[in-house]
Amino acid sequence: MQLRVALLPLLVLALGLAVPSVAKSQDRPEPSPATLRAELEPGALKWIRDHLKPFASDVPSSKELATLTEMIGEAKIVGFGEVTHGDHQSQLFKSHAIRELVRQGAVSALMLEVNREAGAEVDAYINQGKGDLTKIILDSGVFSIWKTDDFASLVGWLRGYVVRTGKPFRVFGIDCQDASVDLQFALERLRRKDRKAADRFTKELQPLLDAEKDGSDLITWINGQKPEAFKLYEEIVSRLIEAAKKTKDPEAIYAAKVARQCLLAYQYEFGGEAKDFSKLPADYWSRRDVFMSENLLELNGSLRSALWAHDMHVLGSLPDYVSQTGYQTLGMLIRKAIGKGYVSVTFAWTKGSFRARLWDPSVSIVEARSRPFEAYEVSCDKPGDLGEFLARVGPERFMVDFRKADEATHKWGAIPYYRGWCGWGLNPKEWLTRPGQESSPTLPVTDILVFYKAISPSTVWQLPKKD
Question: How far is CA 257 from the centre of its chain?
Answer without folding.
Answer: 20
